[in-house]
From TrEMBL:
Name used for this protein in its record: PilZ domain-containing protein
GO molecular function: cyclic-di-GMP binding
Transmembrane segments: none
SUPFAM superfamilies referenced in this protein's UniProt entry, alphabetically: PilZ domain-like (SSF141371)
Cited InterPro entries: PilZ_domain
Domain PilZ, chain residue ranges per copy: 7-90
Length: 97
């Protein structure tokens, strides 16, 4: 998935293919991580989670990360991380001025 919006991301995505757990208001589920960056992730899942819903994504590589769902299209879930790691990355990438 590549488009102009993807090219404006503040963090580089790394392609991956591992499982992660998602905790959200309706319970827990497992998803496959398609790609991930310091500020978000794209996941393949059978469960549609509402845009704007808060989640916790847990992976072996990054541990537990708080986030919010920003997209769900064709079984792919887009998550923007809302934790201190994402905030610190965004602050480093914002030009001073």
């Amino acid at each position: 998935m590549s488009n102009d919006a993807d090219n404006k991301r503040s963090a580089t995505r790394a392609a991956t293919n591992h499982l992660a757990g998602i905790q959200y208001r309706r319970g827990n589920l497992t998803a496959r991580v398609i790609d991930m960056s310091m500020t978000g992730a794209r996941l393949a899942t059978h469960e549609q989670i509402a845009i704007g819903e808060k989640i916790v994504l847990t992976t072996v590589r990054m541990g537990a990360r708080a986030g919010v769902v920003v997209r769900f299209v064709d079984g792919e879930l887009g998550v923007r991380f809302t934790d201190e790691i994402a905030a610190a990355h965004e602050a480093r990438m914002t030009p001073a001025g």
